[in-house]
Amino acid sequence: MTTYAIVHGAGGSGWDWRLVAAELQARGHDVVAPDLPCEDDGAGLAAYTDTVVQAVERAGVGRDRLVVVGHSLGGFTAPHVAARLGADHLALAAAMVPRPGETGSEWWEASGYQAAMRAMKAGTEDDTRRPSAATADGEPGAAADDDEPGAAADDGEHPSRIQEAEGEAWVVETFFHDVEPHLAAEALRRTRKQTMTVMTEPWPLAAWPDVATSFVLFRDDRFFPAVFLRAMVRERLGLTAAEVPGGHCAYLSQPKELAGWLAAVPSR
Questions:
Q1: Record's InterPro entries (predicted)?
Q2: Beta-carbon contacts of residue 193 (< 8 Å; ≥ 6 apart)
Q3: Which residues contact 63 (CB under 8 A, 6 or more apart)?
């Protein structure tokens, strides 16, 4: 039996992963998916890590192995959790992959994301389904200046603000385009504020943890496009990303496929 410790993305919650959790539990596994303190201005990467570590320890679940899962911004926290708990595997799902000393705000340009989005903009006359901007928190943000396509907002936003600026339809088309409407509506309702503290802290690990690592991208992701993630994963992790269908929130649209991939990741 495996215990899966899930680190959700910016402004999210453990609820986001409930369908994947149900699939894994049906296979006889345990799932721990705590809510990170993303609304707390005083909470940084250490607090995020403590939250997940303590949730796993409190759960007291029996296990043969531990797999830590990080989604989107969760890619900054999940490696810390894996190192602290001596995880058997680190599974990254459409996640940001940091380098030592890099802040979340710096990641957008340093990872090649901005260049990839500018290239997509230049090569597509009508690319209305592509996100017009990234944000410092790894989730929806304010539209970029037209003079700099794909530019990231320095201050960051969260979904409630982008809904005001761009409209809820933009958020759905970017993040929930393949999610059942009732689930998309509930996910939007449950969105939490994401503070910027974690994005201003340099990633403190001196190197990637000595934990077996796998990465899965979502082929229909409109926020972290597959072409960008394939290149980033090769460059930063030396891995070939696995691929499953679905958009950025494939945990809601393709839970069976995502759970199947997680259940198959090796221990070492």
A1: AB_hydrolase_1 (IPR000073), AB_hydrolase_fold (IPR029058), Sec-Metab_Biosynth_Hydrolase (IPR052897)
A2: 11, 38, 39, 158, 160
A3: 1, 2, 3, 30
Closest by CA to 237, choosing from 95, 48, 117, is: 95
Report which secondary-structure segment, H or E, holds 218: strand 213-218
Q: What is the DSSP letter of 176?
A: S
pLDDT tens profile 21-64: 999 999 999 999 999 999 999 999 999 999 999 999 999 876 78
Measure CA 259 to chain center. Answer: 16
Q: What is the DSSP letter of 135?
A: B
Cα 51 from Cα 35, distance rounded (Å) = 8
Domain ranges across the chain: 2-104+196-264, 112-190
**Which string of b and e fits 169-182 if b means at least 16 CB within 10 Å?**
ebbbbbbbbbbeee
Closest CA to 95 of 81, 87, 85: 81
Backbone angles phi, psi at 127, to 5 degrees: -120, 50
- For CA atoms 159, 72, 222, 104, give the dihedral sign: positive
Tokens for 177, please give them. 């385009």
CATH 3.40.50.1820, domain 2-104+196-264, yes or no? yes
Tokens of 99: 């380098």
pLDDT digits (tens, 9 = 90+) for 183-196: 999 999 998 999 99
Distance CA 260, CA 247 (A): 17
Rounded to whole angstroms, the Cα distance separating 56 from 83 reads 14
**Structure tokens given for 157:** 């936003």
